[in-house]
Amino acid sequence: MVRSPSREETGLKKGPWTPEEDQKLIDYIQKQGSHGSWRHLPRIAGLNRCGKSCRLRWTNYLRPDIKRGKFSEEEEKLIINLHSMLGNKWSLISTKLPGRTDNEIKNYWNTHLKKKLLLMGIDPVTHRRRTDLELLANFPKLLSSSSNSCSLINPLMENTLGLPTDTVQLARIQIMQALLQVLLKASSFSSSSSNPNAYSNLVLNNLLSSSLPPLQTFSDSSNSSSLPPGTSAFGESVQTPPSYQDFAAQNSENISKQLLFYSNSNNMLEPSENISVDQKQDQIDLNETSATKSMSTRSLDALNLSDLDDSDLSWKDFLDQIYW
DNA sequence: AAATAACTCAACCGCAGTAAA
DNA sequence: ATTTACTGCGGTTGAGTTATT
Prior knowledge:
Arc Repressor Mutant, subunit A, two-stranded antiparallel sheet, elongated, disordered N terminus, DNA-binding, Homeodomain-like_sf
């Protein structure tokens, strides 16, 4: 974490401070009782540095009242609160955190707290919950940055089962909820359907169904329980629907693409110029394949949540969790 | 075990405001 | 009133460290 030593044209040293230089600076200030003029300090103290460099070294590192070590949870909360009121006024914020420098707080904000807020679905600039388009734009990134491909969705179920939910899991739930809220809200404005709910269901189901296994075709659902698992009423081999976890694990990438596609199709997201050519092609591909295919092979009624067949129970459960 | 990517944070840069000449 | 010197602040950099592939 040190820069290679270099010299300005003036001959003054730059870069990392040596223990000897530190000691000279400490000795001088302790002897004088204060730093006095930073401009003249280096010459008198015998340092080949500019005054600015000395001031920075003292205020950010050598000052005896500087607190070292990890930020506590209380400090984190205080920084977030103060930042929501003051913005990037690091020196002001640092006055409320004894022993912490503005530089240290700024670094901690940029490397830790910003990410933390983003994960919680909170915009680090406005400190408001992000239900905006940025969420959608960043969704693929969020998915891929998850520790495993289904971890974004898993907490949904864990939470309803009353299992412990840590901050990150909670954040992911909020992100997912916010995403769907945006999608459904926007879809209700669509003129393509006279029934906003039906259209919302269509969007949501279409989103998921592009990767769904084929619908089971039990002719008589009351008898289905007597059939051996994996067998239809006609004796055909039927694929058992995978759990939502398996689905999410296998299709997280496709889900994110679908979200992107629907956000674009609803004019919620302007066609982005900073997405890659591959991503653009993905959107086109999705438009031409899974989405249209699903639309054509399922009637609108069949796509309504309430009308899902019992054989789709695992999907219904999954959708219930996110479609509150 | 090696290569690569991501992260961390001390230090630097440049601008703005203020005081002194 | 203008110029110069100085200080403080926020943004950015980049070498070292750690994690991941």
